[in-house]
Amino acid sequence: MKLQQFNFLDLKAELDRENLPYKYRLEPTYVNYLKEYNLKSSFEDISFIIKNNGCNLYCPLTIESFDNKNLLSFFGDPFIIICSNINKEILKLFYEKIENILIEKSISKVNFLIEKPWNGEDYVDVINKEVLLKHKLTKFIDLSKDLDSIKKDFSKGHKSSVKKEYEDLNYKIINFKNYNNEILDMMLMHKKVAGRVTRSKNSWLLNGEMIKNDNAILIKVIYKDQAISYSLFFFNKHEAVYFSSCTERQYFKDFINITHKSIYHSINYLKNIKCKKLTLGYCKTIYSPTIISEKLTNLEKFRNSFGGDNYLNYYLEEINKKDLINIYES
Asked: What would the CATH number be for the domain defined by 2-110?
């Protein structure tokens, strides 16, 4: 067994050398955003790689210090492991490494995500809910498929919505080639729609840096020469995520498909740049310790209706060997 300490950038470079896919969260522009979003926390990068009998496990990881407590996360987001041929032996070594960190660094809590494909069978309780923060279902749209095949996976309502056209309604894709600080216009619209400032101006400027670095696009919806909606999509060469959006609410009554068409235009763009898959976020809550609002339930149904491949997401605040193995073997 060989254990190597890395910073996340060196770990990402190692994944690139091995031609292994990794999450969009490993992109430096996204990490810069996370640092700004979690400005009250400080972070120590303790990423590592375990190599054992031809099996490599990659763990981008930070110690997050906040309110006199130490947590394990990835710059405030859940941390993950990346392993193409995971097995019991490598999981035990990973667990031992995490246990040592918990003791040596006086860690009070972890924020750990396990994401695995779901074959559509009934959900099985494989973990103690006392350590389960939430259990979600996420879908990824396979962008290697042609557009007709992707649309076949849409719900009947979504298929109809992306077909519908409105006079004087136009969609403009803003990328690193034509970006002109439109993110600030989105920021002002978001403040107007939300009725308050929800995050710092600098975090919005960092969204702009994502676009300038060719890690993001904006879909701008224009009606009679006026912007009425913005949608931001973040990506690397492996996957993309529907990051955020805002729309002048009164136009939802006049145009029933603003968001549908924005997502559809993003799918077309991401296909053309050879990105492999797109997620719109959670599409179903399997378990939550709190009541899910009707608004969130409707949002999950909306995302689910775009189809895609299913992945189970287990969010854990503690890690034990039995649960770890049960999840990966289930």
From this structure: 3.40.630
What phi and psi values does residue 11 have, to the nearest 5 degrees? -65, -45
Which residue, 135, 110, 114, 113, is CA-closest to 125? 135
Give the tokens for residue 199.
């995050």
SS3 state of residue 156? helix
pTM score of the predicted model:
0.95
Sheet architecture: strand order including 239-247: 112-117, 309-316, 132-142, 277-287, 239-247, 226-235, 216-223, 169-174
- pLDDT, average across residues 131-156: 95
Sheet holding 62-66, edge to edge: 42-45, 62-66, 69-73, 107-110
Contacts of 33 (CB under 8 A, 6+ apart): 203, 206, 207, 210
Could you check whether 2-110 and 145-275 share the same CATH topology?
A: yes
Q: Say if residue 123's pLDDT is above 70.
A: no
| Nearest partner of 257 among 225, 295, 293, 231, judged by Cα | 231
Q: Domain segments of the chain: what residues? A: 2-110, 145-275
Q: What is the architecture of the domain spanning 145-275?
A: 3-Layer(aba) Sandwich (3.40)
One-letter identity of residue 227? A
Residue 122 predicted with pLDDT over 70: no
